[in-house]
Amino acid sequence: MNPLFVSVLSFLAFMASSLGGLWLAHNLPDTQMTDRNRDLIKEARRMLVALASLTLGLIIASATTSFEQRSNEVEDSASKIIALDSTLAKYGAAANESRQMLRDLVKRGVERIDIAAAEGFNTEKTRKGIGVNKLQLKLLQLSPQNERETWLRSTALGLANDLGAYRWLKYSGSDGRIQWPFLAILIFWLCGVFVSYGVVAPSNATAIGTMTVVALCMAMAILLTLDLDTPNRGLIRMSAAPLNMALEQLGALEPAAAPGRP
Hints:
The structure is a single chain. This protein has one domain (3-249). The termini are far apart. Helix content is 73%, strand content 0%. The protein is mostly helical and 262 residues long. Keywords: Membrane, Transmembrane, Transmembrane helix.
C-alpha cells in the first residue's frame, strides 16, 4: 500500500462523508431531525469514535514496533559486522577472502536499503539474499592449524549465523504488516463518524472548516501509521547509516602470505 495514496484517499472519503451528512441534514424532513434522533446519532458517534480510536491506537503501536525492530536489526548487524571482521583479522591472511566477502555483503546491504526506499522491496533487485550463506560456506572452508584458529573460526561462524538471522539480509522483506481489510474497516468507521458530524453540524463556513481540519488530521495519522509500517520507503525510513559506519570501520586486509611461508 502506498501511504500517501491511502491517506489522500482517506481524506477525500472523510470530506465526502461530512458533506454527505450536511446534505442529509438539509434534505431530511424535520420529523426525522428531532432531538431524540440527534441524541441517538451522537451516541452512535461516540461508539464509533471509541472503536476507531482503539483500532488506530493498536495499528500505530504495531507499526511503531515493526519500525523499531527493523531499525534495531540494522544497528545490531553493524556491531556484529565489525566484530566479525575483527575476528577474521585475528585469524590472519587466510581469512582475507572471507573478509572481502563481508565487505561486499555490507555494500550490497546498503544498496538494497536504498533500492527499497526508491522502488520498494518487491522488486527483482531485492528478492534474493545478498550472500550470507556464501560467507558461511567460505568460513567453513577455513582450516584451523591450532586451538586459537579453531576458536576464532567458531566465533566467526557464530557471528555469521547471527547475521543470517536478520530479515534484511536473508530475503526481500515486506511492504508492511498492516492488512488492507483492517485499514478499510477503520476508514469505514471514521466515515460514519464524519457523516454524523455533518448531520448535526450547522451549515456554515466554520463548521465545514472544522470538519476539514479534523479530516486532515485523521488522514495524517493514517499516513504516519503506514509510513512507520513500511520503514524502507516513505517519509520515515530505515537508515543505512549504521552499515555505512561499520563499512568505514572495517580494518585493512592483511597481505597474503608468500608461497612456502606459513
